[in-house]
Design goal:
Order of helices and strands: EEEEEEEEEE
Strand content: over 45%
Structural class: mainly beta
Radius of gyration: 13 Å
Number of helices: 0
Strand order of the largest sheet: 2-10-9-4-5-6
Distance between the termini: 40 Å
Largest sheet: 6 strands, mixed
Length: about 120
């Protein structure tokens, strides 16, 4: 059974940091590009960071220089280090495959709220 479990979200002040984790099971994790997506209230889900199977990374312009995606294939886990957080980063964050013919079922996500 394919499962993605996100964790690490919370309430943080502007300028703060959080580290998100996503544990995957039931998939050959190491062969897939993985990504972190986010969905803010009233907006569509967007891909903000991706990492290929060999570790190459890409970011959407709004998070470049602030977010870092990484993966540990031995632990079937992908991470998102978020620094210099802004109120506009507030969203539910999800992980999933990127570019695959079939995505995994979406997890419950983890809420990130940036507010003073």
């Amino acid at each position: 059974q394919v499962q993605l479990v996100e964790s690490g979200g919370g309430l943080v002040q502007p300028g703060g940091s959080l580290r998100l984790s996503c544990a995957a099971s039931g998939i050959m994790f190491r062969i897939y590009a993985m990504g972190w997506y986010r969905q803010a209230p009233g907006k569509q889900r967007e891909l903000v960071a991706r990492i290929t199977s060999n570790g190459a990374t890409e970011y959407v312009d709004s998070v470049k220089g602030r977010f870092t995606i990484s993966r540990d294939n031995a632990k079937n886990t992908v991470y998102l280090q978020m620094n210099s957080l802004k109120p506009e980063d507030t969203a539910v964050y999800y992980c999933n495959k990127v570019g695959a013919a079939i995505q995994a079922p979406w997890g419950q996500g983890t809420q990130v709220t940036v507010s003073s």
